[in-house]
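Hi support team,

I've been running sequence recovery on a batch of backbones for a student project. Most finish fine, but this one hangs at about 90% for roughly twenty minutes before it completes. I'm not sure whether the input is malformed or the queue is just slow. I've pasted the structure tokens below so you can try to reproduce it. Let me know if you need the job ID as well.

Thanks,
M.K.
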């Protein structure tokens, strides 16, 4: 590893984070890091950036209090810097959240690389660009990673971490561990995929929804209700793969694929289905076994049922319950 890409501080010892870009996503990151007790420096070129950012943090703080603040957490630990260079001068981690424009990302990451002290990992909140496409102008691209959050970052745990072709694998591992220490739920991607994982799944649902509205097949209300009162309740407890595994009863995913696999060729969506060959079949079945992590089908059914009931109760959709 080169000197500039070797992390200078262990993930658990980070105390000061810089957030560059203070819009909805960047401001959400600021709120999250403040809630976890970090010192945060922020920079955004907009003339009213500081006022907007502090309003966002104030609005997010009640939710952060309900989630549980780290010792010493306070909005007073936020410093809004006059320049990008000032914001990152003493940073031990940098989160970039500029608008989704490739040329802007390239230029900004190069500026951050030049201004940030050696050994500090720099992460981009990009929602779709591979890091390989963004790190082209940086002199030390080994420390540049993707740290893709979900909105709002202070509330939704997921962050997807990926490196580019010129990213040092150690920077990816360091970033993933840092986000875990900072209270996030992390997916470390083995390879770059445009849009990453969760956005691609969201996009597939979004496109099919647009097709249905355009074709007069469903209203917007129908589509939203079909998720909030249907699979969305289950997805809050376990993802679509384990949910489908339970559709196979005691036979699990293998029985589900044997029974419903032929329907992949039915025109249920506008997406083309992959061929359900042995390699895909085995990967899905073994993946579900791994995800179950020793839990039986009966265990998973009980877990799902408890979770769905809890969601229904929390959202006031059970008789005699009320959403708080």
């Amino acid at each position: 590893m080169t000197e500039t890409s070797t992390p200078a501080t262990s993930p658990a010892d980070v105390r000061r984070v810089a957030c560059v870009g203070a819009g909805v996503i960047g401001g959400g990151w600021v709120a999250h890091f403040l809630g976890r007790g970090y010192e945060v420096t922020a920079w955004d070129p907009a003339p009213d950036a500081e006022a907007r950012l502090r309003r966002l943090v104030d609005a997010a703080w009640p939710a952060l209090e309900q989630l549980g603040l780290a010792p010493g957490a306070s909005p007073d630990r936020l410093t809004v810097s006059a320049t990008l260079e000032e914001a990152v001068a003493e940073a031990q981690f940098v989160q970039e959240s500029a608008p989704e424009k490739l040329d802007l990302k390239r230029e900004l990451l190069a500026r951050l690389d030049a201004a940030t002290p050696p050994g500090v990992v720099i992460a981009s909140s990009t929602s779709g660009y591979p890091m390989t496409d963004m790190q082209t102008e940086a002199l030390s691209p080994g420390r540049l990673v993707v740290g893709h959050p979900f909105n709002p970052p202070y509330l939704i745990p997921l962050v997807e971490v990926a490196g580019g072709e010129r990213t040092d694998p150690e920077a990816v591992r360091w970033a993933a561990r840092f986000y875990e220490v900072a209270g996030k739920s992390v997916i470390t991607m083995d390879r770059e995929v445009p849009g990453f994982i969760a956005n691609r799944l969201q996009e597939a649902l979004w496109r099919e929804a647009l097709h249905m509205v355009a074709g007069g097949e469903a209203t917007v209300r129908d589509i939203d209700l079909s998720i909030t009162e249907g699979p969305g309740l289950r997805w809050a407890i376990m993802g679509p793969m384990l949910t489908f595994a339970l559709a196979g009863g005691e036979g699990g995913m293998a029985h589900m694929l044997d029974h419903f696999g032929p329907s992949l060729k039915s025109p249920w969506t506008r997406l083309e289905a992959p061929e359900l060959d042995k390699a895909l079949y085995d990967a899905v079945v073994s993946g579900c076994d791994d995800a179950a992590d020793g839990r039986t089908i009966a265990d998973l059914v009980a877990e799902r049922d408890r979770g769905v009931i809890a969601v229904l109760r929390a959202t006031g959709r059970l008789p005699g319950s009320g959403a708080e």
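--
Follow-up from support: It reproduced on our side and the slowdown came from queue contention, not your input. The first strand starts at residue 16 and ends at 20. No action needed from you.
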